[in-house]
């Protein structure tokens, strides 16, 4: 009598499953918006101060823009904790450069160092979209925009953050003159650039729940960094 061969089913090893409420994520987007506009001899930097997590507001005043000792301003969006750590790293390197060379690091040199710093962390990057602002060696406004892994571009203006889809087209129109007939181009004057920055955030707070509360505005020129604080919508 012939018997059909018997095939044993593979043994399944029991696996312990844990429920962590969707899993742990090392990154959080804390919302908010930052922008910068370069002028002929100045830069306007503006950031709101609301820090949120989903529909919860963690803080109504947690600044996203930071002054550095070499006369530059770093505006950030993304993960607030990573942004603060990135500022610490840049400031430590700026201080080391100053004590080693007995002069402050220039804005373009700081821009390159920031790019290197982000690239070095590319396998576990800072979840930050930085905008570095200052004056170049000729005294002209310099704005450097980055992605989280260090790709860098010098631009005339830039907006990042939760309301960037609203603010960037506004800047395209008001700063670059996109879709405007007869626009002559060139740099904006200081008063106009500041007004556009304020208008951008006034409009953004009407549509973006993650942007609001307070607005920090920095003006960088040959006399230094001047800071002002304005109130935004609190709802």
Mean pLDDT: 92
Q: Biggest sheet: strands side by side, in what order? A: 10-1-2-11-12
Percent of residues in helices: 25-40%
* Rg computed from alpha carbons, rounded to a whole number of angstroms: 23 Å
| Tertiary shape | globular
Q: Tally the beta strands.
A: 12
Unreliably modeled segments: none
Share in β-strands: 25-35%
Largest sheet: 5 strands, antiparallel
Cα end-to-end separation = 84 Å
| Count of helical regions | 4
SSE order in H/E notation?
A: EEEEEEHHEEEEHHEE
Structural class: alpha+beta
Topology:
Blueprint: E1 33-38, E2 43-48, E3 51-53, E4 56-59, E5 65-67, E6 73-75, H1 80-101, H2 107-120, E7 131-135, E8 141-146, E9 152-155, E10 157-161, H3 164-174, H4 190-207, E11 214-221, E12 224-231
Antiparallel strand pairs: 1-2, 1-10, 2-11, 3-4, 5-6, 6-7, 7-8, 8-9, 11-12
Helix pairs in contact: 3-4
